[in-house]
Design a protein that fits this description.
Blueprint: H1 2-23, H2 37-46, H3 55-64, H4 71-85, H5 92-107, H6 111-125, H7 133-149, H8 153-169, H9 173-187, H10 193-209, H11 213-230, H12 234-251, H13 254-265, H14 270-273, H15 275-292, H16 298-312, H17 315-331, H18 335-351, H19 355-368, H20 373-506, H21 512-544, H22 549-562, E1 568-573, H23 584-605, E2 609-617, E3 620-627, H24 641-652, E4 656-661, E5 667-674, H25 680-687, H26 690-694
Parallel strand pairs: 1-2
Antiparallel strand pairs: 2-3, 3-5, 4-5
Helix pairs in contact: 1-16, 2-4, 4-5, 4-6, 5-6, 6-7, 7-8, 7-20, 8-9, 8-10, 9-10, 10-11, 11-12, 12-13, 12-15, 13-15, 15-16, 15-17, 16-17, 17-18, 17-19, 18-19, 19-20, 20-21, 20-23, 22-23, 23-24
Catalytic activity: ATP + protein L-histidine = ADP + protein N-phospho-L-histidine
Organism: Muriicola marianensis
Pfam family, one: HATPase_c
Length: 695
């Protein structure tokens, strides 16, 4: 009676608790502002209600994401939404969100977000009610590979730990130990105590499944050390105590198992924060007491655990409850009740695909129903074989995934090496090409410098010839002056001395003969006077005459070049400028330009006459070279080497040149040279009026 009353009170309390849980905090507004999306998502994550209770808000948030135009902001929303909805079983919303999240991460080439999308998908497939372990392992593996490439040790270790947990679910405990060990190795340099706790706990579970209990207990103790560093993880400590108690129970040490279960279930507010763990501990504590022969509270705890699990929808726990109730009822002689509970355990295990619980229930049913024992045992045998094959298939798939991952990594490393080799070859070829181009360019520069040197030597030689010609003219002038001086000294001066002597002799005489002689002497003096005047005028004209050797050279060039070709020429130049005062480089380049133009006229123009002028126009020298040849269209065809040479020479003397031509009207070359190429003396002379120039 007391027991039944206690159960009724408990049911009432639990009903009120469930009502309170179902009410939860106030609902979110249906109108969701874009700026508040992250706030709403954070409130959903912090809420004590199951995620399923927020489906309306999550659907509304997802619909609002279509209005977000900034991809970098949108992907943040999708990341949060994908993480939250990954905890909802059979959720089309998660599949839509995760698909959009993965697609946008790929478009933005955001490796971190892409890894998070794979991580969320793996967590979704790892949910107990979905339990697609091979898919979960595959997406965890994809996420871990990306984190490894990004050298993100923390995230990589978390995904490795999740992979190890998946492996323990399919009894690939050896593989789980490998991945959990790698996770621990990555975490040790960091103060990530909670992540280390999960990794050590997973190691303990794997070793316990392999029945290496001492090794498992050692890792459980290491996990507890990490929780002690956190100082506030009482719920996690209760979960760890449950694992340790379960280890002792499997080991047959029920006293230590009971001690761990009692310490865990006494955790403050455990029923409120973790009802599934509280129900599990009640179940384990009841079976431990049953194993110890302490039957006082066994059924009570089992029913209480059953009620909690039923209220939170823990089908996995309910299946275990039914099985344990069948064991207890069988032991105390209520075989009919045991048979019903075993059948419930079997049916629920089949519904949730818990193959191990299904096999245990079949074996128990064969013991409770001897008449149909063969039926249950045959089904047990068949199911056991299928289960072994399925586990083997999944483990092989895990191995294939790992192998393919390693193969991909090896291929990537090989491709990286090949890429380095190709990069080295490309760099070598590039350096060779650069070196070759430098050699070629240097050789061209050397040839150009050599050509310029030869040209300068030729120009210098021509200039020296001009100077020599000028020197000869000066020598001719000096020779003529010497001749005139000798004429004055030897001829006129001698005659004047003779006349002077005659006049001195006649000064003392006054007869007619003397008078006649004096008249002759005077007449002789007049002749000498006229001769002196004549010589003086000749010298005066010579002093004002300009000898332009450069112009003479130009005229000689015209005569020697065009006359043999049967072409008439007209040559004029400004008489007021001393053209020999031009700089040597300027004269050489003008001479070569004229020479090139004459050659073009003879070769291509078919001209009969040519006009050349050298004039001074303001502050520049203007040179015109015009022929009456056939002409050509200046805009068509490529420039010949002759035109390029003219352009190069004009550029050297900082001048300008214009080419005017058309078919049938001949060709005109116009050069404009700055006055800066004339010496200062010549400039002064040009700037003076003509009468002052003569003075």
């Amino acid at each position: 009676m007391f027991k039944q009353l206690f159960i009724l009170v408990l049911l009432s309390i639990m009903s009120n608790s469930c009502d309170f849980i179902n009410k939860g905090p106030k609902n979110f507004d249906s109108e969701i502002d874009q700026d508040s999306i992250l706030v709403i998502l954070e409130q959903i994550k912090e809420s004590n209600l199951p995620v399923e209770n927020h489906l309306d808000q999550l659907d509304e948030v997802y619909s609002q994401l279509g209005q977000v135009s900034v991809d970098t902001l949108k992907i943040q929303y999708l990341s949060q939404l994908s993480l939250i909805t990954s905890k909802i079983v059979d959720s089309q919303l998660f599949q839509n969100v995760n698909r959009d999240f993965e697609k946008l991460a790929g478009e933005l080439q955001d490796s971190v977000k892409l890894a998070e999308a794979f991580w969320d998908k793996g967590a979704y497939f790892d949910l107990p009610d979905i339990a697609q372990r091979d898919s979960a392992y595959l997406y965890f593996s994809k996420a871990q590979k990306i984190f490894q490439q990004l050298e993100d040790d923390i995230s990589s270790s978390s995904v490795l730990r999740a992979m190890a947990s998946v492996q323990t679910d399919v009894h690939d405990n050896t593989g789980a130990i490998v991945n959990a060990t790698e996770a621990i190795r990555l975490l040790k340099p960091y103060d990530e105590y909670k992540k280390l706790y999960y990794a050590y706990n997973t190691m303990g579970i794997a070793y316990a499944a392999l029945k290496e209990y001492d090794q498992a207990l050692e890792y459980y103790n290491l996990a507890e050390e990490q929780l002690q560093k956190l100082k506030s993880e009482s719920i996690e400590l209760a979960s760890l105590k449950n694992n340790i108690g379960y280890l002792y129970s499997n080991k047959g040490d029920f006293l230590n198992a009971k001690k761990e279960f009692q310490e865990a279930i006494s955790t403050d507010s455990l029923l409120w924060y973790k009802p599934d763990l509280y129900a599990k501990l009640l179940d384990h504590l009841a079976i431990t007491n049953f194993k110890l022969g302490i039957m006082d509270s066994v059924e009570e705890n089992l029913y209480r655990s059953q009620f909690i699990r039923d209220s939170i929808g823990d089908l996995e726990g309910l299946s275990l409850n039914y099985y344990n109730l069948a064991l207890v009822n069988k032991e105390i002689g209520r075989k009919a009740d045991a048979f019903i509970f075993a059948g419930n355990a079997r049916d629920l295990a089949k519904e949730i695909d818990n193959n191990l619980r299904y096999l245990e229930s079949l074996r128990l049913l064969s013991e409770l129903d001897p008449e149909n024992s063969s039926y249950y045992l045959n089904e047990y045998s068949e199911m056991s074989e299928n289960l072994l094959q399925e586990e083997r298939r999944i483990r092989n798939k895990f191995a294939n995934i790992k192998f393919e991952t390693e193969e991909t990594e090896n291929r990537n490393r090989q491709l990286a090496r090949q890429q380095l080799i190709w990069i080295g070859i490309a760099v070598g070829l590039l350096l060779f090409a650069i070196a070759l181009s430098i050699i070629v360019v240097q050789r061209i520069k050397n040839q150009r410098l050599k050509f310029q040197q030869q040209q300068q030597e030729a120009n210098q030689e021509i200039f020296n010839l001009m100077l020599a010609q000028k020197q000869k003219v000066e020598e001719g002038k000096q020779s003529e002056q010497k001749r005139i001086s000798e004429e004055l000294h030897d001829g006129i001066l001698g005659e004047m001395n003779g006349v002077r002597m005659v006049l001195l002799g006649l000064n003392k005489k006054g007869d007619d003969a003397a008078v006649a002689l004096r008249e002759q002497a005077i007449e002789k003096l007049k002749e000498v006077q006229e001769e002196i005047r004549s010589i003086s005028h000749e010298l005066n004209d010579a002093s004002y005459q300009k000898f332009n050797n450069f112009m003479n050279s130009i005229e000689d060039l015209l005569k020697n070049t065009v006359e043999p070709a049967g072409i008439q020429y007209h040559f004029s130049y400004d008489q007021d400028l001393d053209w020999d005062q031009l700089e040597g480089v300027t004269k050489i380049n003008l001479y070569r330009i004229l020479q090139e133009s004459l050659q073009n006229c003879i070769k291509h123009a078919a001209a009969t006459s040519i006009y050349v002028s050298f004039e001074v126009d303001g502050y520049q020298i203007v040179i015109t070279i015009q022929d009456n040849g056939r002409g050509f269209e200046t805009g068509k065809g490529k420039k010949g080497i002759g035109h390029k040479n003219i352009e190069s020479r004009v550029r050297k003397i900082r001048g300008k040149w214009y080419l005017k031509s058309a078919p049938g009207i001949g060709t005109t070359v116009l050069l404009e040279i700055p006055m800066e190429h004339i010496s200062q003396e010549a400039k002064k002379e040009i700037s003076l009026p003509k009468d002052l120039q003569e003075v």
